[in-house]
Each structure stands twice: as C-alpha cells, then as structure tokens.
Amino acid sequence: MLEALSRxxxxxxxxxxxxxAWTDLEIHEGERRFVERLAQRLGLDAxxxxxxxxxxxxxxxxxxxxxALVPAEHRRAFFEAVRAxxxxxxxxxxxxxxxxxxxxxxxxx
Length: 109
Known about the structure:
5 helices
C-alpha cells in the first residue's frame, strides 16, 4: 500500500508519524529509528529525508497534520503507520492513546 503513495503523500505520512512521536514532547530513540526506517522504505531522496529529520527535531505544526489532507484511499495506511510509531519506544501513555483515537475518529475509522 505504501508503494502507491505519491511523493507528497509519503512526506505527509511521515509528518503524521513524526507528529505522533512528539505527543509526549520527546522523540525517543526507538521512534527515531522507526521514522528513519520508514523514510528509507519509502525511498525518499536526501532532501526529503532532511525535511523528515527536521520534524524529528521540531514537531510539525498542528495545521500541517490535518486528517482532511489524507486521501481516503490511504487513510488505513496512515493510521497503521501512526499506530506503529506509538509502540516503537516500548512505552505508550494515555495521551498517546487519546491522540491515536482522535486520529482514528478524524479519519473515519
């Protein structure tokens, strides 16, 4: 499914993933590794990877992760990727769960 994403959709996906990783106001090493592996799997070029690296240092603005921007056909893939990063550091707190549930509702799931 991820292979079907356009370049802009791939960046949007990673922006959502990074935003979820920032929910507890800290990027943990497991989350960083997850994001880096996902960026590699998506075949991002160096400039796009640098943009993703920036999101690991500075959280994306809330308006940039608007669920309305996610194409309907990719909502499940976005949700699954966001859910996966939530577990990447081995710790899931209540705020992360709430954020994930808000995303699920906003995506119509």
